[in-house]
Write a structure and sequence with these properties.
heterodimer, A: mainly alpha, ABC transporter involved in vitamin B12 uptake, BtuC, two-stranded antiparallel ribbon, 3% strand, B: alpha/beta, 2 domains, six-stranded mixed beta sheet, four-stranded antiparallel beta sheet, 11 helices, 35% helix, 27% strand, globular
Amino acid sequence: MTFFFEVLIGGLLAGVMYSLVALGFVMIFKASGVFNFAQGALVLFAALTFVGFMEKGLPFWVAMAVTLAVMMGSAILIERFVLRPLVNQPPITLFMATIGLSFLLEGLGQGLWGSQVRALDIGIEDLPFDVLGMTFSKFDFFAAGCAALLVGALVLFFNKTRVGLALRAVADDHQAALAVGIPLQFVWAVVWAVAGLVALVAGLLWGSRLGVQFSLSLVALKALPVLILGGFTSIAGAIVGGLIIGASEKLAEVFIGPYFGGAIENWFPYMLALAFLLIRPQGLFGEKIIERV
Amino acid sequence: MSQGGAPLLVINNIEVIYDHVILVLKGVSLTVPEGGIVALLGANGAGKTTTLKAVSNLLRAERGEVTKGSIEYKGQRIDRLTPNDLVKLGVVQVMEGRHCFEHLTVEENLLTGAHTRKDGRAAVARDLEMVYGYFPRLKERRKSQAGYTSGGEQQMTAIGRALLAAPKMILLDEPSMGLAPQLVEEIFTIVDALNKKEKVSFLLAEQNTNVALRFADYGYILENGRVVLDGEAQALRENEDVKEFYLGLSSQGRKSFRDTKHYRRRKRWLA
């Protein structure tokens, strides 16, 4: 039984890391209805930029602040040169634009900072430690703590501030938001900046786990089943979805895996997502389509 | 123009084209005086909504464009401004079909209207109370999700939301849509009160000619993207053509729709 809980909690903690990536998708999907294919590239770009500045000799917090500024700047540029010219185009056009954007960001990041694998040390050692006879990774706990802080801050931002209210309004109805004088361009820039912030946090945590390299942009693929499970429009959904995916893939690997010859961890989440699509396509917490009768 | 008050909004011979090909407005001119309620009447597709959206600059979001003519508010050209700039100037549109933010509560919906304001929380809170004063029903339902409120409550929310922008002028598009006659009466009475007490001018697009002409001071009738007739509301109500084609009355009094087929008065205007 101890072993079961060890696997379960380890999985939940890993799931938090998935949630972190999924959060970035949710931000942008909520506010603009665009599935942002470039979220993974943003994660990579943020991590590369951060490591690049660290190697230039900047101290940790300064590098963090500078990278954050770079992410905000990119958000504004993306809004100005990618989104604004494409206002009122069908969603598929915007989706294609984000695919293009992801290649641009990947190329730009690696062009500027080089493409070799780099270690990223954020000062938390990945040491095991024991609680009640179970062994966990210290780093995982740290990552979960960061994610919790980030989510808390986002929830406050969305629910308690004027800009947050405007973001939620835009997510509901673009036209009405325009009509009451909410500037869409500003809202989009803010949303992409927030997605950039989320990408930065995800990039740092994932980067220090996997090393900063091209494959970092592929963690975004793990966010897909999380989104399908949790719903594309819900922050809570991204969290819960991540936890379910993390826990179930680890449990499946350990307890069902042996029957299939192992390594089911890699495809199990997608199967789960597929099954979920059949039952509840809007996800666990996706916004219900309100229909008045 | 025999309307009281200085002209607040002047639309001068505008032409609107959607998608570079579809000509919708073919030269519409109208004036809204300060403190007036002006009705824009006409059937579906006559161009009422397009006219309002040309003023509020929501057209560009639908690939529409004002290609000729000018729109002036307080003597200033406004056709190149963004909707955001216009709201700051005090011109707000209440869109057809309510367009509430469904997943926000009624109160949050109202507060989004204050997004452009810079005069502080206290002023916004005061205006929120003012809106609740006019629409007590909204106060009862202020914590409900707007998507689950009734059509009338949504219309009130939409108007209240516009009021929180502290507007001088509201472009009100089809407030009667899908509402019971009693509610239509209630909403129009409140519009009238807002006009008298809060000094808000209205440009009102309506299909319900009867109600609109009772509450408006002046009316314009649009057909196929042109103004075919305009005049004091009172005069329009008594105009034979308006009676026949918009109010369903003839010289014999109210008549059944079955009979209208047999003889139709020839319109005096060319559309």
